[in-house]
């Protein structure tokens, strides 16, 4: 047995459904009997029209009763699902919908303003980003790293440069022989008119020279004992003792006197070149060991002789420090560009997060939509309550004929109104909170026109 306000009506619908099913079963049996008469060859021809008419009537009655039983079952299930909620009344519905249209319009206006402010903010952010990025790129361009490196390296081999010191002249006199040797040893084609190529070959020569005197350059000479031989006597272009070069990490493999450099050895030469001139640079891959003695003699010629041993020319390392300083400046400028881009992406992602204000969009939309349908919903709810009340009173009468479709529709209208009442109250509370700052979750602070500033160049 059902429970609640409409329990008698639900029970009555169940009974009516059972009656309809019984009637349908009776009609089916009668139809089958009439069909047997029609199929019997002994049935008198005069009786056949009447039997056929009765057969069609019972078959039609069977279909009608089955359909009625189905409608009654749907009505009974829908009515059984309607919750017992004494708070959902006609006055409560009218009160909930009161001023909902006004509140929805205010919410829509506020949401449009949020979108407008956001668009302005994003435009400002993008303009600031483009300005900072352009400043950073101009700063990188103003460094003129390639031109400055070319100037330093070409001056280092120019014996005709005015104003050069005695040390600079000595390096300019001796460095070309090292440059020529490394070009031959690394298989570099000499292009006299290509200033970039000349500067790059000069840098390779300086790097090779510094590795020949690796212990001086790295401050490790004091760690060597007399038995280990100083590097200026037994080292080579890779900074490895000559007797250990084939087993060192500098060489990946060799074919006769051709030594193929390991990745680590290639990086010592190539990385500085790529940092200054980009991908269009010389690259070293293999060393022709036939030129080792010639390279050794050229390095000795550029070195400084003391009573004890050869010492590397300090001006060579000053040139390398200038190149490394230029590379460091360029890396800082490049890092600034990446930092500016990354900072913009982070701020853009943050700017696209609407937070609580996103509720304005859905809340105002629902408010306006529900306000437009309020008249129809309230009218349907009122009519549904009247119909169910009438059916509830009539279901105890013997001649009651239930309006199954009406009961189904009314049950659905009441259930919809019950859900909508609480949804409307919720959306009104959300809009009031967002618009007026009342209640929990008050309106968030307005977005600033700028977030943290992008890094300056």
Explain how this protein is built.
The chain has 457 residues and is mostly helical. Among the domains are: 1-81; 145-338, no CATH class. Helix content is 68%, strand content 4%. The strands form two sheets. Strands 1-2-3 form a three-stranded antiparallel β-sheet. Strands 4-5 form a two-stranded antiparallel ribbon. It is elongated. Residues 439-454 have low confidence and may be disordered.
| Order of secondary-structure elements | HHHHHHHHHEEHEHEEHHH
Sheet of most strands? 3 strands, antiparallel
Round the mean pLDDT to the nearest integer and report it: 84
Shape: elongated
Strand content of the residues, in percent? under 5%
Q: Give me the count of strands.
A: 5
Q: Gap between N and C termini, in Å?
A: 81 Å
Please give the radius of gyration in angstroms. 48 Å
* SSE class: mainly alpha
Query: Low-confidence parts, pLDDT < 50 over ≥5 residues?
Result: 439-454
Q: Going across the major beta sheet, what is the strand order?
A: 1-2-3
Number of helices: 14
Amount of helix:
55-70%
């Amino acid at each position: 047995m059902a429970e609640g306000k409409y329990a008698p009506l639900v029970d009555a619908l169940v009974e009516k459904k059972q009656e309809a099913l019984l009637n349908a079963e009776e009609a089916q049996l009668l139809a089958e009997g009439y069909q047997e008469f029609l199929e019997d060859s002994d049935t008198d021809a005069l009786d056949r029209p009447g039997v056929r008419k009765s057969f069609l009537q019972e078959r039609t009655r069977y279909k009608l009763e089955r359909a009625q039983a189905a409608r009654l079952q749907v009505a009974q299930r829908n009515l059984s699902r309607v919750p017992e909620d004494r708070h959902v009344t006609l006055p409560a519905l009218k009160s909930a919908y009161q001023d909902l249209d006004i509140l929805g319009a205010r919410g829509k206006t506020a949401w449009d303003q949020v979108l407008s402010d956001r668009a302005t903010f994003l435009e400002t952010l993008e303009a600031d980003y483009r300005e900072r990025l352009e400043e950073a790129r101009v700063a990188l361009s103003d460094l003129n790293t390639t031109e400055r490196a070319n100037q330093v390296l070409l001056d280092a081999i120019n014996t005709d440069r005015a104003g050069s010191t005695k040390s600079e002249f000595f390096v300019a006199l001796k460095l070309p022989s090292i440059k020529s040797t490394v070009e031959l040893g690394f298989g570099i084609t000499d292009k006299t008119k290509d200033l970039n190529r000349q500067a790059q070959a000069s840098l390779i020569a300086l790097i090779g020279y510094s590795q020949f005197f690796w212990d001086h350059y790295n401050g490790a000479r004091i760690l060597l004992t007399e038995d280990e031989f100083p590097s200026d006597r037994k080292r080579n272009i890779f900074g490895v003792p000559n007797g250990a070069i084939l087993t060192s990490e500098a060489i990946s493999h060799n074919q006769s006197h051709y030594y193929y450099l390991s990745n680590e050895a290639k990086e010592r030469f190539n990385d500085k070149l790529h940092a200054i001139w980009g991908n269009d640079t010389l690259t070293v891959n293999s060393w022709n060991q036939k030129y080792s003695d010639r390279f050794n003699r050229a390095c000795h010629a550029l070195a400084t002789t003391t009573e004890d041993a050869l010492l590397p020319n300090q001006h060579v390392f000053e040139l390398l420090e200038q190149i490394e300083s230029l590379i460091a400046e360029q890396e800082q400028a490049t890092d600034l560009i990446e930092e500016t881009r990354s900072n913009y992406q982070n701020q853009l992602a943050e700017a696209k997060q609407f937070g609580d204000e996103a509720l304005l969009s859905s809340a105002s939309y629902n408010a306006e939509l529900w306000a437009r349908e309020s008249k129809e919903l309230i009218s349907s709810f009122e009519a549904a309550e009247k119909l169910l009340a009438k059916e509830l009173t009539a279901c105890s009468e013997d001649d009651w004929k239930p309006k199954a479709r009406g009961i189904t529709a009314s049950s659905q209208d009441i259930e919809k109104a019950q859900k909508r009442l609480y949804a409307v109250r919720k959306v009104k509370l959300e809009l009031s909170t967002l618009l007026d700052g009342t209640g929990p979750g008050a309106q968030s602070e307005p977005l600033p026109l700028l977030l943290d500033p992008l890094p300056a160049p």
